[in-house]
Amino acid sequence: MKKKITKIIISIAALIIIIPTIFITIYAINKYNKRNGIPVLAYHEVVEDNEKNNYYKNNIWVMDKSHFEEQMKYLADNDFYPLTMKEYSDWKLNNKELPKKSILITFDDGFKANNIIVKDILKKYKMKASIFVETSSLADSENYEPGILQKLSAKELVNDEWLEFYTHSHAMHYEDKNGTLLETSNVQTIEEDLKKSSKYVDINYFAYPYGKGSKQATEAMNHLNVKLGFNISQNYHSTKDNDNFEIPRYAILSFYNMFIFKYFVN
């Protein structure tokens, strides 16, 4: 009986030592991976508060305007420097220096509200963003109807001081039990898709649908001289050590509070 009690005590003591060690190790790895890195944020859609409550309450990819504005205000108040894609690319590929607290803000899919609600907030706080557009689903009209997740039209894909547009593929935004189209398609198919997308947006920078690249995608991108590919990873900042076709981004979901947001960006 005494031996059993002794074994239990030893096991408990070991756990008391091991568990904190694991957490400290994870924390240290995360801190190491964020050294001299740049946080890259990945949003999707932002709508008015009442739209979020009425239509998209359980959609984690659709954020309410107040929440997004709170985040942009935090970045502005704390002197974060919003990067253009060229500035980010020059840092990553050409070793150019950047201001302290630089950050890259991106959006996936190309929703129409990005050009209205998001743009107004970016202007207000002097922020910038890059939007990755799925070019096969462009809208025919420039009119915006609340309550509907509308895509941008071709006429709206004009770079300015606040927004830039890049590719999220032409028609590769599909996933089934076998994987994403990028994972299951051959190199030639992916090349043809990117060429179609190039008729509408710059394909030098490519955010993978569902945040998942592939060997075939990398080969196709090399053939077409695509500079950078972006995925999704919640664990670390982008660093110069990252593979050029595996740039990590933090997916910013609608239920994240400011504590989580500050953790990602700081």
Cα-to-Cα separation, first versus last residue: 52 Å
Shape: globular
Based on CA atoms alone, the radius of gyration comes out at 21 Å
Give the strand content.
Answer: 15-25%
**What composes the largest sheet?**
8 strands, parallel
Say how many strands there are. Answer: 12
Number of helices: 9
What does this structure look like?
- It is a single chain.
- The chain has nine helices and twelve strands.
- It has helices spanning 2-33, 49-55, 65-77, 85-94, 117-125, 181-184, 187-197, 215-223, 258-265; strands spanning 40-43, 45-47, 62-64, 81-82, 102-109, 129-133, 163-167, 175-176, 179-180, 202-207, 228-230, 250-251.
- The strands form three sheets. Strands 1, 4, 5, 6, 7, 10, 11 and 12 form an eight-stranded parallel beta sheet that branches. The chain has a two-stranded parallel sheet with strand order 2-3. It has a two-stranded antiparallel ribbon with strand order 8-9.
- Strand 5, helix 5 (117-125) and strand 6 form a beta-alpha-beta unit.
- Helix 3 (65-77) packs parallel to helix 5 and helix 7 packs across helix 8 (215-223).
- It is globular, with a radius of gyration of 21 Å.
